[in-house]
Amino acid sequence: MKFFIGNWKMFGVPKSINILNKINSFYSKDKNRNKYRVIMTPPYTLIESYAKNFKNKKISIGSQNCYQKEQFSSDTAAVSPYMLRSVGAKYTLVGHSDNRGEGDTNAMLKDKVKYALKNNLKVVFCIGENKSEKKNKKTLNVLKNQLTKVLEKKFNKSNIIVAYEPIWSIGTGKIPTLLELEKTTIYIKKVLKNIFKKNSPAVLYGGSVDGSNVKIFKEIKEIDGFLIGGASKSSKKFIDIIKNYYR
Ligand code: PEP
């Protein structure tokens, strides 16, 4: 099973649902539809209405983040996994580099994963090295740390997806070479197998994925799908990624 997950970031108002309606109608008729899942993560403000709209449809709705406490608390503006699940979210991103940059620590991320899973949200756990870590050949070490400091064997592996998103590639148009990405993905799966003591969860790639470079990524059989930022805000661009992946 492959995954095409869209991350809208700070984008979208109620009428932006038109974008998802178009993606959903392509997805429901696509001859390859049983080979993949489409998940979209709009901002918090749209989760309830979008999840209602797509309740019995093909697309699933997720959240871009969640707070590291389970249900209710006195943390202003925080939204818990319990609250997200109660309005129909099925997935949540955890550890996006934007949120790590805002101060999410490994301890906070571990609680986010724990409480999200406890509330039946599937977790898309994001990892990735920055430009200077890459330059200093620290990539594999950084990724290993990000994985082993947060994920634990006792977490339900089948509800976890890992998204490898090199920070220098997000929104920049820059992508890793085929060889680099293949090596890194194989390494991530090795670390995950070690953590879970059996098969690795799915591992996605994210960072400037578009309709043309997806053909390159498709050569790497270890990649189980994509986390798509910029291109997920256009139905045409998002659909082109899926079409070209299966072409
Ligand atoms: C992201 O922010 O998760 C992302 C992958 O963005 P983009 O596709 O725009 O690089």
Could you describe the 3D structure shown?
There is one protein chain. The chain has 247 residues and is an alpha/beta fold. The chain has ten helices and eight strands. Helix 1 (17-29) links the parallel strand 1 (2-7) and strand 2. Helix 1 (17-29) packs parallel to helix 10 (235-246) and helix 7 (139-148) packs parallel to helix 8 (178-196). The longest helix has 19 residues, at 178-196. The mean pLDDT is 97. Residues 7, 165, 170-171, 206-209, 227-230 line the site of phosphoenolpyruvate.
Name some characteristics of this structure:
247 residues, alpha/beta, TIM Barrel, 10 helices, 39% helix, binds phosphoenolpyruvate
What is the element layout, followed by pairings?
Blueprint: E1 2-7, H1 17-29, E2 36-41, H2 44-53, E3 60-63, H3 81-86, E4 91-94, H4 97-101, H5 106-118, E5 122-127, H6 131-135, H7 139-148, E6 160-164, H8 178-196, E7 202-206, H9 214-217, E8 225-228, H10 235-246
Parallel strand pairs: 1-2, 1-8, 2-3, 3-4, 4-5, 5-6, 6-7, 7-8
Helix pairs in contact: 1-10, 7-8
Bound molecules: phosphoenolpyruvate.
> What are the secondary-structure elements, in order, as H or E?
EHEHEHEHHEHHEHEHEH
Strand content range: 15-25%
CATH class designation: Alpha Beta
CATH evolutionary superfamily: Aldolase class I
Percentage of residues assigned to helices:
25-40%
Give the count of structural domains.
Answer: 1
Task: Give a short overview.
The chain is 39% helix and 16% strand. The protein has 247 residues and is α/β, with parallel strands linked by helices. The protein is globular.
